[in-house]
Write a structure and sequence with these properties.
By secondary structure, this protein is α+β, with helices and mostly antiparallel strands. It is built from three helices and four strands, in the order ααββαββ. The chain is 33% helix and 20% strand.
Length: 90
């Protein structure tokens, strides 16, 4: 996965507070990459919906987000079992 190679394995993960502080730009980036319904859970994981098969859009979004906020961000699609948690709109 070439996207992940841009980040060192020791890079830290963004906190929920950092996610919420960047919510406007995270919503804009989601729209740019064709992802909809962005939400955030209590741990700061962002959950998005993708109409496209595969994870190409998700990986491009994750790369852009990590460069924007300066930390890795846990992002999953809403079809993953882990997405079935309480969330709030991003």
């Amino acid at each position: 996965m070439s996207t992940m190679s841009n980040l060192a394995t020791g890079d830290r993960t963004a906190s929920r507070a950092e996610v919420l502080a960047a919510r406007k730009v995270l919503r804009q980036l989601a729209q740019r990459y064709g992802l909809s319904q962005p939400r955030v859970d209590v741990a700061g994981t962002v959950i998005v919906h993708s109409s496209d098969p595969g994870y190409a859009a998700l990986m491009r979004y994750a790369d852009a987000v990590s460069k924007t906020i300066g930390a890795w961000l846990n992002i999953i699609t809403d079809d993953a079992p882990a997405a079935q948690v309480d969330t709030e709109d991003l």
